[in-house]
Amino acid sequence: MPGIGPRTAQRLALHLLRQPEERIKAFANALLNARNQVGQCQQCFHLTEGNECEICLNQNRQRNLICVVADSRDLLALERTREYKGLYHVLGGLISPMDGIGPELLNISPLVKRITSEETTEVILALTPSVEGDTTSLYLAKLLNAFVKVTRIAYGLPVGSELEYADEVTLARALEGRRTVE
Amino acid sequence: MPGIGPRTAQRLALHLLRQPEERIKAFANALLNARNQVGQCQQCFHLTEGNECEICLNQNRQRNLICVVADSRDLLALERTREYKGLYHVLGGLISPMDGIGPELLNISPLVKRITSEETTEVILALTPSVEGDTTSLYLAKLLNAFVKVTRIAYGLPVGSELEYADEVTLARALEGRRTVE
């Protein structure tokens, strides 16, 4: 399991062996239930227990905005900002020719279907600033620009950081992405 | 001295005491010379040994662009990107009412003089994304917008970072600062 090395694994295993049988049964059942009941939202591919996730079902969200993220963890990070009120679309990864991941392995055609059939006015690409993220952003922008306004989140200096300690690539991006102040 | 604690100070002092007298004399002279000869550029307030700094004297730089930074360290960080070809203006700090630093203590009126007398077409504010940086950016934007186009560097996700681990404020800024992808 990610982040768990041999020593932690041994500690956890020994801890579980010391528990009463009832607790272990309940734990095993909870794992099985989670595995069986949690699926993907038919709309946005976020994790959900039903057919559609809470965000897609929530009628108070702005339904004309779709924010595209690589996976559910990124979606949850954006939700923590409490700033974004639109819908999401989870790609299930990023285009990465090195790892043999092409666009056809991601949830891209359902995204095109959503955009052409729903009242979407803007697609916000919220992908990590990496080779894979940039490739995927460019691919999606080319694909979707015919149907809808495509934007991407800003890359630049993180809040609270020092200009002096920023790496060259980030500073160059921040300069390149400068915007007019009114 | 910044970044030097008592133990490092002791190690450095003992090292210096072990050097031959000639070397110490040369070191002391170098320090005195640096103190006496390094001053501020009359144009941009960057460090220089002459009246004007190398950047202001360089006729190959774009003279219509002025990038405003808090201090010379930030200027050097931007130079390391090798992306920026314009001129600079070093404020000598940021507006900080808490520390009693008002606009009159910074090199702001020489900046206004430069903009109104030179062929400047754009002022880029490259200040840290902090309360003081934002305050100073807003102050300068208000002051300079009458004369020239004012932009500021992008705040958002640093290159190579993971969206998942970005703090809420940075993510919110990145969302707010999103730009159209063509």
From TrEMBL, chains A, B:
Residues 64-158 form the Toprim domain. A zinc finger (C4-type) spans 41-56. GO terms for biological process: DNA recombination; DNA repair. GO terms for molecular function: DNA binding; zinc ion binding. SMART domains: TOPRIM. The keyword Cytoplasm does not apply. The keyword Transmembrane does not apply. Keywords: DNA damage, DNA recombination, DNA repair, Metal-binding, Zinc, Zinc-finger. NCBIfam families: recR. Belongs to the RecR family. May play a role in DNA repair. It seems to be involved in an RecBC-independent recombinational process of DNA repair. It may act with RecF and RecO. This is Recombination protein RecR. It comes from Prochlorococcus marinus (strain MIT 9211). The lineage of its organism: Bacteria, Bacillati, Cyanobacteriota, Cyanophyceae, Synechococcales. The gene is recR.
